[in-house]
């Protein structure tokens, strides 16, 4: 015969029986040896209390180290500042990464590039997730640029690492300026111009963008051949704008009338095509020829070019393209 199936209640009672037995055994042990139970309770409470004390001491120690760091940063003497920061940087604390970065910064200002490189490298290797890591790697680039002789390849690699490894950091928003400077120092002016333009596009209206624009303006004066693409774009747009309108406008006299003064035959042909049978237009054209030179003298072109190149960099090449025609007029 098959055994009768047990009900769910009987199964539950079988499972609960060992648990009840364990509880009963524990109570019996406490009755037999009460001091053991009291000792166990006291041991647990002591461990909990010790953990609270240790945590409180750790917080107090961290606050003390932070105060020491602030005091070291405020020191005026570079030697004392470096000595204080070295002692703080050796202590394991929540501000150790910052202490190492401050140490590298102070050593760099004191032109101790070896100590600065060691501190920045330690931040990069041991505290790569710290907010001071991208700043330290940028500091490595400054160190490589300051060596004798400078190592622009390693410096540029450091700046590019900041953009690649910490793209969301604030330091990454100014690295195209540093990369462009390295390219310029190496004589790679085409890549320098591209990097400066990338800096303008990445973070406009910042001090880094202002420095990049100043570098572009300097290169535009020193090496205008680097900006031929801008000049061709401006010259290709000029004839289209003058040819679309049938009548001369106030925005076009500096270009159209300069060619009329240098080529009288073309001037007369253009005048006949534009004026047609309207007598009023024929009377106004000579007036433009008489007043144009004085108007050009009254408005200096060079000042307009400098202002437009700073406010609107993309319009600077167009202004340069206009200067040859104005030179012919004079």
What would you note in describing this structure?
The chain is mostly helical. It has a domain at 170-225. The chain has 16 helices and no strands. The protein has helices spanning 8-32, 34-73, 78-89, 96-109, 113-126, 133-146, 152-165, 175-185, 189-202, 207-222, 228-244, 253-262, 264-275, 279-298, 301-311, 316-329. The longest helix has 40 residues, at 34-73. The radius of gyration is 39 Å and the shape is elongated.
Task: Spell out the helices and strands N to C.
Answer: HHHHHHHHHHHHHHHH
Principal-axes shape call: elongated
Secondary-structure-based class equals mainly alpha
Instruction: Give me the Rg, rounded.
Output: 39 Å
- DSSP summary, beta strand count: 0
State the end-to-end CA separation.
126 Å
Q: How many helix segments?
A: 16
**How helix-rich are the residues, as a percent range?**
over 70%
Q: Averaged pLDDT, please?
A: 73
Low-pLDDT segments: 236-263, 277-330
Strand content: under 5%
């Amino acid at each position: 015969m098959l055994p009768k199936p047990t009900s769910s209640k009987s199964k539950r009672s079988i499972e609960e029986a060992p648990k009840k037995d364990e509880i009963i055994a524990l109570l019996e042990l406490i009755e037999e040896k009460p001091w053991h139970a009291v000792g166990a309770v006291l041991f647990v409470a002591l461990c909990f209390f010790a953990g609270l004390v240790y945590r409180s001491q750790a917080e107090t120690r961290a606050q003390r180290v932070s105060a020491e760091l602030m005091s070291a940063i405020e020191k005026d003497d570079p030697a004392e500042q470096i000595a204080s920061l070295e002692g703080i940087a050796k202590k394991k604390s929540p501000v150790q990464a910052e202490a190492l970065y401050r140490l590298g910064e102070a050593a760099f200002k004191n032109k101790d590039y070896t100590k600065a490189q060691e501190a920045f490298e330690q931040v990069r290797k041991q505290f790569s997730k710290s907010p001071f890591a991208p700043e330290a790697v940028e500091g490595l680039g400054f160190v490589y640029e300051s060596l004798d002789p400078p190592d622009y390849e390693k410096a540029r690699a450091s700046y590019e690492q900041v953009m690649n490894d910490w793209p969301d950091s604030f330091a990454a928003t100014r690295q195209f300026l540093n990369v462009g400077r390295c390219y310029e120092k190496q004589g790679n002016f085409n890549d320098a111009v591209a990097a400066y333009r990338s800096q303008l596009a990445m973070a406009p209206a910042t001090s880094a963008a202002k420095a990049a624009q100043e570098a572009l303006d300097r290169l535009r004066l020193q090496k205008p051949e680097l900006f031929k693409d801008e000049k061709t774009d401006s010259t290709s747009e000029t004839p289209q704008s003058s040819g679309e309108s049938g009548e001369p406008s106030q925005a076009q006299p500096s270009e159209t009338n300069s060619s009329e003064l240098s080529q009288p035959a073309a001037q007369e042909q253009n005048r006949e095509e534009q004026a047609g049978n309207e007598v009023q237009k024929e009377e106004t054209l000579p007036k433009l020829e008489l007043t144009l030179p004085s108007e050009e003298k009254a408005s200096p072109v060079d000042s307009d070019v400098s202002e437009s190149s700073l406010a609107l960099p993309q319009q600077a090449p167009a202004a340069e393209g206009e200067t040859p025609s104005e030179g012919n007029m004079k």
